[in-house]
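Long-time lurker. I teach an intro course on protein structure, and each term I like to show students one example going from raw sequence to a predicted 3D structure in token notation. This year I'd like something fresh instead of my usual example. Would anyone be willing to generate the tokens for the chain below so I can use it in lecture? Attribution to the forum is fine with me.
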Amino acid sequence: RTGADVGTGGHAAFLQQSHVENVLVDCAQLDDRTWRLQATAEGLRTVVSYLLMGRHGCLLMDPGSAVTWPATLDALAGIDESLDVRWIAGSTVHPTSVGALPLIQATLGSDITVVTSQAQAPLVAHYGTLLPHVTLPQDGSLEIGGRALIAELSRFEPLRFGLRDSATGRMFGTGVPKPPPARLPARLEGAR
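-- Reply from a regular --
Happy to contribute to a lecture. Here you go:
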């Protein structure tokens, strides 16, 4: 395909069906139960995923697209071949965030649960998987075994979804945007 084929309407289809050579995944261990996986390939936006480990299995935040999933799956096996990924979550419903859902179902099985927000749920269903869903409200909690992940929803961008580790306060996903900083009237701005 050419860049012209990947217009606004065809971008999602292109990402789901294309094949890109040389997807590289850099893995970094952030702590004893958290990994960051950063997938890069020429011509594609960098995909940052997080592997969150608990005693009852692992959650993969922003697993990526169908293009990056094979390399991400290899990277996960490189971390630990016996990983038990039980939950998938996406900070957005964009194909670069959760476009791999059909491949995840095909490679990891149908017992993976998609963790999402009420606003995201209908759009995640668009990917056509039969994976079960758990919908978390603001401050809703998902317990993955000794690790509680708290839902953070954005009032400003309803389709943004993040998970915060209750013990460390660390946010996962592309993040929930913060409100724009308040501006003081011009005559008071200089006093800041």
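Some talking points for your students: The chain has a mean pLDDT of 84. The first strand starts at residue 24 and ends at 31.
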